[in-house]
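Weekly structure sync, notes
Attendees: PL (lead), two postdocs, one rotation student
Agenda item 3: pending single-chain targets
PL asked that the sequence for the first pending target be pasted directly into the notes so everyone works from the same version. It is reproduced below exactly as submitted, 407 residues in total.
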Amino acid sequence: MNNLFSTLLNVVKAKLVPVWTKLKLFCNASYLKTQVFNKIRSFFSSMLNVKPRNKNDYYPFLLWLVSKRLALAVVMVLGILGAYYIFCVNPPAAFLAGEDGIRTYDYDALPLRFISGKVRIKAKSGYIAYEGEVEKGRAKGQGILYDSEQNIVYTGMFENSMYNGRGKLFYAGGQLRYEGEFTDNEYEGEGKLYRQNGTLEYDGVFLNGNKSGSGTLYDSGSNMIYNGTFSNDSILYSELLGKSTADVASIYMGERTAYYDDTAFAAALKDIGVLYQTEQKDTLKEESTVQKVFVWENSVPIGEKRYTRVTELEAYMGQPVYEGNTYITMPEAVCLEYLQQKGITLLDTAGLEKKSLYDDVVQIEDYEKDYMLYLYTYEYEGLLYTFYCKSRYGEFAMYSIERAETR
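Predicted structure, written out during the meeting:
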């Protein structure tokens, strides 16, 4: 009985072992990969080894005839490479939504190019750089941009993967930098600009990323100091010309100090860095109008650029209407003192001797009247711009603006 059972078991084993061996072989990944590549190689070899027999076996391409079999082989190779990229480089998991229903893609994932809707996009280093709406792989609609520390860089509307529409831009530490309207990543339209310490700096109109148009300027404590017109990221100082002293007081709310002597009256608007000179009147008692504005800056915005040397300005303003040395006036002497306080030391001070009558009124008793400045005066768009230099062809320390017809 035992011999019969052993014989039967050996017969069964003899039948099953070859089957088991083949099953193990077919389940081996290396074997399957080898077989697949061999089949593919054999397929392409047989396809490419068949020579076309007549012109119907070719596709005309410019001056050549391309074998239809060769063209098919190229298409299949591209299809295989595309499938490899999708399923190996960016595996099917990229098509699966997360627990919140939002899919995540690498920034260069091929499927992302065909997706519209809400997604997350990984940066090259692996962190989530964007979460929001896309259309055919480009940010469009509401979205959030993150940095590598997962701090928000920008949140708002996108178009063509750029800031377009209303949004908020943040400093590196997360503090709000700007909120308002954007066009192609630039501030454009109504918006508010904040300093890094959180205080409001400007509220008004922007163009090409700069303050341009009507707006309000604030000091470091978010107190309103000037409400007027801006151009190329600077106050349009020529706007002050012709205004009455009362009108100036209504648009400038910062610190103001009046200076006068027997020859002139001027007022320093320290928070916006200017001094204006009025017509000859006793302006402590009577209202007068602004005739000239001195700007305490050693650069001037003209067109889309800022200039620091007078020789660079001739392309815009032409030849100077005046060039040469001149003796200093009282308002200019006051300006030199303010320039020193601002750290602009291209010109020396003129030795002011003064007496304070009130907290914001100063009488000038004397100054170095033989102090000489080198001036360049240009006429441009109905205005006279005068640049104050230490010597010829040098940098200027400040400039003034007045109307051409008043000179």
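Discussion points:
- The mean pLDDT is 84.
- The two ends are 135 Å apart (CA to CA).
Action: rotation student to compare against the earlier draft before next sync.
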